[in-house]
Write a structure and sequence with these properties.
Length: about 100
């Protein structure tokens, strides 16, 4: 019997299908800080997605990566439009 299961990006609420060896989709992976990306990759063991036996180190690093993306998304949602671009759209001192 062949199982036909989809592997989705691990960021909560993301339904993008990714290869089982990947932790998350590319847009979310691009939000992970470089040092944390390196740690996830360092802890990854080829084939762990097949054997379902990731190391505790990998699980810790992957949780940190997921949490960093969730925090960035949360912070972006709490900003005013344009604020994430460094723009001040409602600056009263710029009025004539």
């Amino acid at each position: 019997m062949v199982q036909n299961t989809k592997h989705l990006c691990h960021v909560p609420g993301c339904n993008v299908e990714v290869p089982p060896k990947l932790l998350m989709c590319k847009p979310h992976w691009n939000l992970v800080p470089p040092l944390l990306k390196a740690e996830v990759c360092r802890c990854y063991r080829p084939g762990q997605e097949i054997t379902k036996t990731p190391t505790a180190e990998y699980l810790k690093a992957s949780r940190q990566a997921i949490n960093s993306v969730v925090e960035k998304i949360r912070n972006a949602k709490n900003q005013k439009p344009g604020q994430q671009l460094g723009l001040e759209l409602d600056n009263p001192s710029s009025e004539n």
